[in-house]
Design goal:
38% helix, alpha/beta, Rossmann fold, 9 helices, globular, ten-stranded mixed β-sheet
Length: 273
Amino acid sequence: MFDKIASVYDSTNKWMSLGLDQHWRKTMVQECMSLSKHDRVLDLATGTADVSLLVAARLTELSDLRGGIAAGAVLGVDPSTEMLRRGVEKVDERVMTGIVHLVKGDAQNLSTVQTIDSRGRLSKPSEGVATGSIDKISMSFGIRNVPDRASALREMRRSLRSKDSSRVCILEFALPSGQSLLSLTARAFITHVVPLIGRLATQGAGSEEYEYLERSILDFPQPLEFVAEMARAGLQAKSITSFAFGAVHLFTAEPAADSLLTSTVYAEPTDWQ
C-alpha cells in the first residue's frame, strides 16, 4: 500500500496536517527523545526517513565533531521498499549515509532485516536488532498500521536498554472524542477532508490507500487505552502531549515492569480525557 503512494507521501503529509507534521516530528525528537551524542536510535516506520534525518541532525549538533557519532547510530526500519528507496535518496542528499542506516523490516519481529540502496535493491536477510541494544526508539504515525501492536510494543521493550535514560516516543493520530467545537472540527477534518486530499494528491490512484488512513485512525484506541497496551508490554508511559485538539498525541514512555501514567501535557486545548 505505501509503495503505491510513496511518490506523494511527503507532500500529502504536509497538506493533510496543514503543514504541522514536521513541527510534531521535531517536538518528538527535541523534547521527547532527550538525545545524548552516544545514543543508538531505532526509528520504526521510518518511511522516507524524515525522523531518522532529524535524529541524525540532532546527534550531529550534540557531537563535538561529526566523526564522534558512531557509524549507523540511527537505524531506520520500514516494511515498504519504495518508501525506503526514497528515504535512502534523502539520506544521501543530506550526506548522512554514515550516520543513518535504512533497512527493510517488520516492527513485529526485528530479528532480521534487509539493507536497501537508492535503486531499491535489497540485500539478503541479516541479523536485526539485538536485545538491549537501543537507547531511544521513535515511531511516528506508524503504530496504528501494525497488525499486531502488542508484538511491536514487546519488540520495542526487548530492544531497549534497561536504563533510566532510555525512551520510547510514539507519535500517532487519534479521533478526537471531545464535544467542543474544535474537537468536532478536527474529527470532521479527519473523516472527510483527509480522504479527499489523498484522492486529489494521487489523482485518484491512491484513493483506497487514503480511505484506509481514515479507517486506521478511526480504529486506533483512545490515548489511555493505548497507554494500557504499552503497560502490558513493559513500557511505562510518562506523559501524553496532545496536538491539534486531540487529533495527534505524542506518547513518552520508559522501560518498566509496572506502568503508571505520571503526567499529561496539552500542547493545545483538548477535551478527550
